[in-house]
Amino acid sequence: MTLLGHTRYCDEILAQTALLADLVTDADLTRRVPTCPDWSLRELVVHVGGAHRWAGEIVRRRATEDVPEDGVRGAAGPEGGDAGALRAWLVEGAAETVDALREAGPDTPVWTWAWDHRTAFWARRMAHETAVHRADAALATGAAYAVAPDLAADTITEWLRIVAFAQAEGDPEAAELRGGGRSLHLHATDVPDAEWLIEFGEDGFTWRRDHAKATVALRGPLTELMLAFNRRQKPDEGGLEVLGDRALLDFWLERSSFG
Known about the structure:
Elements: H1 6-24, E1 32-33, E2 36-40, H2 41-61, H3 83-104, H4 119-141, H5 149-168, E3 182-188, E4 195-201, E5 204-208, E6 216-220, H6 222-229, E7 241-244, H7 246-255
Parallel strand pairs: 3-6
Antiparallel strand pairs: 1-2, 3-4, 4-5, 6-7
Helix pairs in contact: 1-3, 1-4, 2-3, 2-4, 4-5, 5-6
């Protein structure tokens, strides 16, 4: 059972995509993205739109195996540097993917790379993929960024689940997130009950929604907390503050940077 529900995730894919599309309408598509320095703004948008089409193809086919991205129609984006064509391509792909997700519903079995082999996984993943990369585009263009509190909170929760899955699958970076007696507390100061406690054990880490004293705490506005936890800004920016062992927070951020 996911936190926000299938319908909401589908709605957010469309809403976050529309906001991302607005950012590129009059932007310089060759501008580098500071939080994804290997990408230009155009490459960022193509990544998001390609991900939409790939997930949508998996859902439409009811695929039980991975679908090669180079075999997905239109996933490479439009040729040239026309912002209008790029915007139209992005919005169209998101709409097609949401149509497929809504038709399938949340519980249809499909291939995923993760722990949940249902269409619900792709709805949630694409909603957060789009919301976080919209932040990248906002940072690149100097635009303001805001996201609904429940979506921001669920972005943190999903990322914790992804890192835990990566650790269980033997990812070498995530494997280092261990060591008994240490803990990390995430505390949103502007939204009630938006708190997470990460505890490091000898065999790995566990997490839960809780308020508790920890080795290090990162606290501040929820949206800023989400951005820092996703490495979109520094932990001491945006009204955030670090209390306790900053090295442990950096240890986590450095080893959850895959993907």
